[in-house]
Amino acid sequence: MATQDDIFILEKKLLEKQDKLDKEKEKLDEAVVDIKEKKEEYLNKLQAIAGLTTEEAKQSLFKEVEEAEVQHVARIIKQKEEEAKLTADKKVQEILMDSMRHGALNYIAEYTVSVVKIEDEDIKGRIIGKEGRNIRAFEKATGVDIDLDEEGIIRLSSFDQVRREVARRALEKLLKDTRVQPFRIEEIVDQTKAEVEQVMLEEGQKLAFDAGVFNLPTELLVILGRFKFRTSYGQNLVVHTLEETKIGVHIAQEIGADVNTVRLGCLFHDIGKVVEGDGSHVKLGVELLKRFNIPEAIINCVAEHHEDKPFSSVESVIVHIADSISGARPGARYEDFNEYAKRLEEMENIAKRYDGVEDAYAFEAGRELRVIINPGKLDDASTIVLSRKIQEEVSRALAVPGEVKVTAIREFRSVYPESTS
């Protein structure tokens, strides 16, 4: 058991330790104060040397770090760009080939002619009628010309393929009817027009459905139905439109473009080919779509699909590419080479026959004719008039698809001194 002396000694030792700890604490506190003072002193010295505040020094440090990171990111970007260049061409080929595979349709190009076969040549006499009354009534009611010269067939001629279809169907009905008279002809033609109108509505609905487009106005569906009776170099417009739409939609899906805009742009891109009026099919198509309040992005796809205007969107580029793929692929279109060359030559000859024309060249598959004018024979005003005359004669004399653009070039050059070499 501890005695009173032992307790006293223990307390004395504890007090000595406490006193020692207090002294150590005082020294530490003094050291902390001294460090703070020295820190402030050094900061003041650094600021004085660098001319920066603490906040400015911090921002300077951040800027150095940011610049270092930017350089690092730039190196990564450059590396990725080099990799993209190596793989871009291959990726583009894959997208286009895959799109063509999805869009290809199993069909043979159509080469339609409006011809009605007959078994008996005496039938032509009934079609002509007394003093030609029947044939005149038929041509007036249908708007087509009848050619009876070839044995075994009756050939129908008109630039409007819908008219030719009405005439073909009406003529087939008349050949089965013993009452071939002017009033009967008009009656059958009117009935046939109503039938063809219904056929065009059904064909337009089918085309829109196959293209994945719905809720179009009835009038617009009827116009789309005319595609059934329209071909370009043997390629039926319905088949071409569906093929182009499938290709365009697939490309749009692959690259993340607006699929709906591309779909409608492809569907409407050639609608001007079945619309009556003056101007190219692009111009007529744009005017028609504006009347139906079609969105501007879609109208731009139609207006730009032949690069008549600069591309305004990636969707316009896709429609142009899809149209080119469908129309230019082997087997899609056909025209006899000799007939094609003959038509281009005749276009040039028509222009060359005019006084003041030095030379003429047909371009763009016969859609453009460039005429070189002798500046000494024709002035600017006469050149404009001549261009109009040539355009009218070419359109009238030759069955050129679409509108022919005539570009007259009148250039005057003066060189002094003239070269003697």
Strand order of the largest sheet: 1-3-2
Structural class: mainly alpha
The CATH class of one domain is identified as Mainly Alpha
What's the CATH H-level superfamily name of one domain? Hypothetical protein af1432
C-alpha end-to-end distance: 140 Å
Count of alpha and pi helical runs: 14
- Give the total of beta strands: 8
Low-confidence stretches: 104-112
Main beta-sheet annotation: 3 strands, antiparallel
Q: Could you please describe the fold and organization of this structure?
A:
The protein is mostly helical and 421 residues long. Among the domains are: 84 residues, 2-Layer Sandwich (Ribosomal Protein S8, Chain: A, domain 1); 99 residues, Hypothetical protein af1432 (Orthogonal Bundle), CATH 1.10.3210.10; 73 residues, 2-Layer Sandwich (GMP Synthetase, Chain A, domain 3). It has a 3-stranded antiparallel beta sheet, with helices on one face. Strands 6-7-8 form a 3-stranded mixed beta sheet, covered by helices on one side. It has a two-stranded antiparallel sheet with strand order 4-5.
